[in-house]
Specification:
The chain is an alpha+beta fold and 295 residues long. A five-stranded antiparallel beta sheet has the order 4-5-10-6-7. Bound molecules: flavin-adenine dinucleotide.
Length: 295
């Protein structure tokens, strides 16, 4: 594997490089845990890797609170995500997705931006961020910024809305409606083994209740069962205004079917499409059954 490497030291240097490489062949590398695998499988000639891992920028490499939002720099590594107090308190679904990603060694270098931009249908952080309806801030080679919802970002298998000469700068999650006291939020990952394994099926849920267990807002997304991670709009609508301690069995089935109807899995090395659908149905039901049992 042969390529040239550019190592910008700041976001401004990155922007300058993107401008310089506008009409040339390049790839951005952050932790490079996905990129190296991809280039090993499909080597490219005359390629430059713009390695952004050395960029020294507080906002790009960390998690901050700003205007009642949590802002996560795209270069933040996965360890920081599972240990950050704001994430742990307000967004358990994201903490659990991060905690279960690969292994401790990989979590030290793998970044949230890399997980989002590699656009794998089994991307664990993507799944949690969709349930949280996160917004992505993108910057281009001229320094122009734009914002796009993660719900609109994925266009097909490993295809995103990111244009050439743009990079992902940060991820914002709204804190306005979050009340950790009445929240039901988590991440279920089914794999062929406990660690170092991509999801066979995953489900992220972030449900805000009032003090009487009535659902005020809901975010549900699943991974590894369609060409992209999918947000289950109808399952979210189904829950609104329902008391989740009083759901009957037929309603729980209906809820799981609302998720399943978005699934279009394939057979691959890890599991068959049939198995993935069964598992997705069962884990969808289980989140409501578990809640009733424990409350
Ligand atoms: C053994 C192993 C186990 C794994 N297990 C899991 C798992 O359990 N769950 C899971 O979800 N993933 C898993 N992965 C995949 C990978 O580790 C994650 O997707 C990781 O978050 C990628 O981050 P990175 O910084 O290494 O990305 P990189 O490899 O550096 O980049 C990935 C892609 O994103 C682009 N990119 C990176 N940053 C930016 C940016 N700021 N702007 C624009 N484009 C950008 C790159 O150009 C590249 O196309 C695993 C990988 C390995 C090797």
């Amino acid at each position: 594997m042969n390529f040239n490497i550019e190592i910008p030291a700041s976001k401004n240097e990155l922007i300058e490089l993107l401008s310089e490489y506008k009409n040339k062949k390049y790839r951005i590398g952050a932790g490079c845990t996905d990129l190296i695998m991809e280039l090993r499988k499909k080597p490219e000639d005359d390629l430059t890797v713009i390695n952004i891992s050395q960029i020294n920028d507080e906002d790009f490499n960390n998690i901050k609170l700003s205007n009642n939002k949590i802002v996560i720099g795209a270069n933040t590594n996965v360890v920081k995500i599972c240990t950050n107090n704001e994430v742990v308190t307000n967004f358990p679904t994201l903490k659990e997705a991060a905690q279960n990603l690969a292994s401790n060694q990989i979590r030290q270098v793998a970044t949230i931006g890399g997980n989002i931009c590699t656009a794998s249908p089994s991307g664990d952080l993507i799944c949690a961020l969709m349930a949280l309806k996160a917004n992505l801030e993108i910057i281009d080679f001229a320094g122009n910024k734009r914002s796009v919802s993660i719900l609109e970002f994925y266009k097909g298998v490993r295809i995103t809305d990111l244009k050439k000469s743009e990079f992902l700068s940060s991820i914002e999650i709204d804190l306005n409606k979050v009340n950790p006291k009445n929240m039901y939020s988590g991440f279920i990952k089914i794999g062929t083994r406990k660690s170092m394994e991509c999801s066979v099926v995953s489900l992220a849920y972030h449900i805000q209740l009032n003090e009487n267990y009535k659902v005020i807002s809901a975010g549900l997304a699943f991974g590894a069962s369609a060409p992209t991670v999918i947000f289950a709009y109808d399952a979210c609508d189904f829950l609104i205004n329902k008391n989740i301690t009083e759901l009957k069995n037929n309603e729980i089935d209906e809820f799981a079917n609302h998720i399943l109807k978005y699934a279009s899995p394939i057979d691959d090395l890890r599991a068959t499409a049939w198995y993935r659908k069964q598992v997705l149905f069962n884990i969808s039901k289980s989140i409501l059954e578990e809640f009733s049992k424990t409350n």
